[in-house]
Amino acid sequence: MNTPYTVLVLCTGNSCRSQMAEVLLNHDLAGQVRALSAGTRPQPKVADGAIAALKAAGLDTEGLHPKDIDAVMSEDIDLVVTVCDNAKEACPVFPRPIPSIHLPFHDPHGEPLQSFLAVRDDIRTRLVAAVREKLGLKAAA
């Protein structure tokens, strides 16, 4: 078995979009990608709406918590994905050049569950496909 690519999803608070992206990438590209997420200014907890949206799709949310970018800087990262403009602008300098994608998503923080569900589905459609294409991964059978 090949070693999966490590993908870091980066946003500002690491409480919503990047958390949903982490879970979706780990689920939809299981065995091909190991996704991590972090924030440039992490919030105290994952947004309740993000947890509810993931659970509504039958996805595991156990152990999700916001992490500071410093917590993952020692990882051997193959691809960085920024999902908000603030994280793109504040993206740290890594010890070696790392390919990156900037793919912004609406921030549903503070909005009704329907907004989180829409963002979850948008991440699943656009981000999973973009990571698959960037890393040259095969689509699921």
Widest sheet, order of strands = 2-1-3-4
What sequence of helices (H) and strands (E) makes up the elements? EHEHEHEH
How many extended strands?
4
User: What integer value in Å does the Rg equal?
Assistant: 14 Å
DSSP strand content? 5-15%
**Averaged pLDDT:** 91
Largest sheet: 4 strands, parallel
What best-fitting shape do the alpha-carbon axes yield? globular
Specify the helix fraction band. 25-40%
Quaternary state of the chains: single chain
Structural class based on helices, strands and sheet pairing: alpha/beta
Number of continuous helical runs: 4
Distance between the termini: 18 Å
Instruction: Please mark out the parts with pLDDT under 50 across 5 or more consecutive residues, or reply none.
Output: none
Question: What distinguishing features does this structure have?
Answer:
globular, alpha/beta, 35% helix, 15% strand, 4 strands, 141 residues
Produce a short descriptive summary.
35% of the residues lie in helices and 15% in strands. By secondary structure, it is α/β, with parallel strands linked by helices. α1 links the parallel β1 (5-11) and β2.
